[in-house]
Specification:
Layout lengths: L1 E3 L2 E3 L12 E5 L4 E2 L4 E8 L6 E5 L9 E14 L4 E4 L3 E4 L1 E4 L1 E4 L3 E7 L3 E2 L2 E4 L3 E16 L3 E5 L5 E8 L6 E8 L4 E7 L21 E7 L4 E8 L5 E8 L5
Parallel strand pairs: 7-15, 15-17
Antiparallel strand pairs: 1-2, 1-3, 3-6, 4-5, 5-7, 7-9, 8-11, 10-14, 12-15, 13-14, 16-22, 17-21, 18-20, 18-22, 19-21
Length: about 250
């Protein structure tokens, strides 16, 4: 679809004008295609603007409008309120599109579903719905000798148990787990004075043991261990002791 002198024309069209006549051509944009697809103006073959005037030459001439295919990219964040996704939902040029997932509050980014994202880029070849999934990342304070009971966890949840070395000397801090089932134990971390209610990214090493030790924790420093859940148990206990874990 195009236009000549304000009149819509369906391409391809052959029109006759006297040489030297001024004719205004235009290419409406965007133009509709199949569901979730549209076409945006790119250029004219003569290099003119989207709407421009040509002088009819003395010999036959062809003027072609080029268009870029665009697809509807719908971007979602799950669960609701867990983060934001850019770009927002809308039409994007076909090909590589940069996407970014930014967590909110105590959430951490987990993965993408609905499309293949590589190096923060999705190759858009059709209308696509892309969902960024986030995991709730909460922190429980503990002390040496105390028992923390974790229960009632929703799916896609990360719970961190953090303990401060309250002894006046350097020691190992061990986290002993009872009732541990259906969870992934994530690498322990030794953050420097971390006191926020959200824990950090702790990596993702699955281990098959029921205790984890963070070695050589200085007095006043915080050691922590995290658990990721997709099908969590109803409850389990974590006991913090000074020294290596023993079962």
């Amino acid at each position: 679809m195009g236009g000549v002198n304000g009149v819509a024309v369906t391409a391809p069209a052959t029109l006759a004008y006297a040489p030297g006549t001024s004719v205004t051509v235009y290419a409406p944009s965007p133009q509709s295609g199949p569901a979730g697809t549209r076409y945006a103006f790119r250029d004219w073959s003569d290099g003119g603007a989207q709407t421009h005037t040509i002088t009819v030459p003395s010999t036959a001439a062809t003027y072609t409008a080029g268009f870029i295919t665009q697809y509807l990219l719908t971007t979602l964040a799950s669960p609701s309120g867990s983060g934001t996704v850019t770009p927002p939902s809308g039409y994007q040029n076909a090909g590589n599109v940069s996407v970014q997932a930014t967590p909110s509050g105590c959430y951490s980014f987990l993965n993408w579903t609905g499309g293949t994202v590589t190096a923060d880029t999705v190759n858009l070849v059709s209308p696509t719905t892309l969902q960024a999934n986030f995991i709730l990342n909460q922190r429980v304070a503990s002390t040496i000798g105390s028992v923390v009971t974790i229960r009632g966890l929703p799916p896609l949840f990360r719970r961190t148990v953090a303990a401060t070395n309250t002894l006046p000397f350097k020691t190992d801090l061990s986290f002993i787990v009872d009732g541990y089932s259906g969870a992934t134990l994530v690498n322990p971390a030794l953050p420097s004075g971390q006191t926020t209610e959200c824990s950090s990214d702790f990596g993702s090493e699955t281990v098959g043991r029921n205790f984890y030790t963070v070695a050589n924790v200085d007095p006043g420093r915080v050691a922590s261990v995290s658990f990721d859940f997709t099908a969590p148990p109803s409850a389990f206990n974590v006991t913090v002791v000074a020294g290596p874990g023993r079962r």
